[in-house]
Specification:
single chain, mainly alpha, two-stranded antiparallel sheet, 50% helix
Amino acid sequence: KQATRRVPAAVMDVIRESERGIYAKDTNYHKKYVDLENLSQEKAIAVSSKTAPSYNKGQKTNYKVKSGDTLGGIASRYKVKVSDIQQWNSIKGTNIRVGQNLVLYPR
């Protein structure tokens, strides 16, 4: 059963204005990741670069983990993937410690 929700009129106006952009992004995502032709190309690239990150490495940066840091947060801040950080630093899983030094190659 679907729940009915009330949304303020001002918020609905913003949603309506943004709707076209939202659907356009969804269509682009579909073309890139769901379209079978692109999917097979992505798989071929992934297989050929299993040991390398998904892009060319940038300049090496050392990062010291601070309290509250997560791999996801660090990855987002430096525009890299969590899996890249794990690979560069030989980390299995997502546990990191305060004071730990991480090697990063930001974009």
